Amino acid sequence: MLKVLYDPDGFFSELNDPGLRIPLIIVGINGIIGGIVAYESVKYVSGFLPYEARAFIPAITIAGAVFAFLTPYVKWVVLTAVFYLIGMFFNRKEGFRRHLAFTGYGFIPLIIRDLISGYFSINILRSLDLTSISDITSYRDVLSSYPGIKLAGLISILFILWSANIMVFGVARAGEIRYRDAIVVVGIPVGAILLYTVSKVIL
Question: Which residue ranges make up each domain of the chain?
Answer without folding.
Answer: 8-202
